Amino acid sequence: MCGIVGYIGFRESQPILIEGLKKLEYRGYDSAGIAVHTERGLEVTKAVGRLVNLENRLTGEPLCGTIGIGHTRWATHGKPSDANSHPHTDNSLKFSVVHNGIIENYLELKEELMLAGHRFLSETDTEVISHLISVEYEGDIVKAVQKAVRKMRGAFALGVLTEHEPDRLVAVRYASPLIIGVGEGEKFIASDIPAILEYTRDIYILEDGEMAVLTREGVELLTVEGNPVAKDVFRVNWDLMTAEKGGYDHFMLKEIYEQPRAYRDTMRGRVSEDGRSVVLPELSITAEQLRAVSRVHIVACGTAMHAGMVGKTVIEQLARIPVEVDVASEYRYRSPIITKDTLVIVVSQSGETADTLAALREAKRCGARVLAITNVVGSSVAREADDVIITLAGPEIAVASTKAYSTMLIAFFLLGLYMAQTLGTQEEAEIARVLAAMDSLPEQVESILGQAETVKGIAESIAKSSSLFFIGRGIDYAVALEGSLKLKEISYIHSEAYAAGELKHGTLALIEDGVPVIALLTQEDLFEKTVSNIKEVKARGAEVLGLVNEGHEEASAKTVDRQFAIPRTLPLLTPALSVIPLQLLSYYASLALGHDVDKPRNLAKSVTVE
Ligand code: M6R
Predict the structure, then answer these.
(1) Residue nearest to atom 6 of ligand 1 (CA)
(2) Where do you find CATH 3.40.50.10490 in the chain?
(3) Is 488 part of the annotated catalytic residue set?
(4) pTM of the prediction?
(5) Model confidence over 109-156: pLDDT tens digits?
(6) 310, 330, 324, 297: which is closest to 480 by C-alpha?
(7) Domain 253-440 belongs to what topology?
(8) Is 327 in the pocket of ligand 1 (CB under 6 A)?
(9) What's the CATH code, domain 450-592?
């Protein structure tokens, strides 16, 4: 997704903008650009592709000046190209804008502007903003931005510069994240903290409908209507090192290896000292309110939705409340039955996914209570939900989610147990038994990671295939979906996940000699049934890799061609272990194929458009 950086201060802005944009690369982008107020006026340089292309362009002709804005674009309106890259300017070249989000009524606005003689150079919605501001400008950039914003509909975060006022930088937030960094004699804007952490730890987090006017000396916060806003500076206490690779070849591998730590952190302080109950002091939902919940909706996208599918089984088994899982982009449009006794759980690593946020708002509009599971403190989802469980995975930089997914599972285990103990649906001894098993998960993950070389070997043979299948039953099916998505997104190998029993209803036609099938067999009560499905694919020539529980290898050896065993845990908790070899499998397959593991094609880390 797009990234914004802005600077006003006493140093050269170009290197600060470029370095800041590099820190936002994890969000995914396809072009980049900067605008700087130089001694010649407002100057813009842009380049399609990676940031290095922009740097190369700037090498011969640097933009010198101490105020500037920069942007990494992930194409939404118009293809990735130099012309469509930000910053965008008006026809007089006096106003320059960087923008994250979408202006829904841009075509209407563009038509009006064209009738008034404005010429457009790009296909973007953003270019309309710079023109609108130029039209509204009467000597005060703040007022012009306010007037322009009033004409715009949609979601946006903006950084605005004008040649007329070289000592002011304006930022606006409307449903797209934006922060303001406060330094001595210098100020920053950014769509995410890592972009400016090298320079300051003091930030303001803008809320929807707020804007900031930055000068070298200070920051004025106000609403887009012009009313002053008072808020405290937020001190960031995590350092940039946590966001760096720490010796691993890729962020994804580092993040896979961080999972034991992430599990411990996510559980820390949430289990009573005697290990017999869950403590979630962050939840404000009362026991009475929880008892009134008659159904749960889990809403999320992609990997987070797959975590939600595990969450459904966890909540239904432990708390005995019916749960539906929805893809967030579908939720609002299917007229879901949301009542006051519906608990809507939104799950989002970034906390900024537009579809998930829209679902959250719809749920609230219908009077439901919303609980969020997210990895980002202060994210939109975290701020708008009634209750939040933060997964303490730490910043996840690789686009392919690993530790954020697995800590969502930990959050669901904790939540399911918490609901069960509150509702009295499980004996205290059973809750203690699950908690004891959870306590062993980090060590068990470590032991799986110790077999990474074995997985690497399997991945290298799989990487030669053009298509493969993941199958499983029950909770194994939910993990199969995640394993398949992971492989697709970073290795670009076609793969599908199927409920093992469903294959025979059509998809078996695709199984032929040598097609790899990864069969998850961790649910021992479903073992025999899954074995029958494995026989169906074997009979058609499939090469089957079984993912089994330790101690169960002998039983499956007769059916599968190869197997990988994971440590034994309670059936409900197996996803937290079985997903680990699948993450490694995708990583090594992508590596074997020479792909950019951390920045796969056509994907963004945080998808802030619907
Ligand atoms: O930030 P979110 O968890 O809301 O993101 C949802 C999906 O976009 C995300 O999980 C996506 O599927 C990842 N690329 C998966 O690795």
Answers:
(1) 301
(2) 253-440, 450-592
(3) no
(4) 0.73
(5) 999 999 999 999 999 999 999 999 999 999 999 999 999 999 998 879
(6) 310
(7) Rossmann fold (3.40.50)
(8) no
(9) 3.40.50.10490
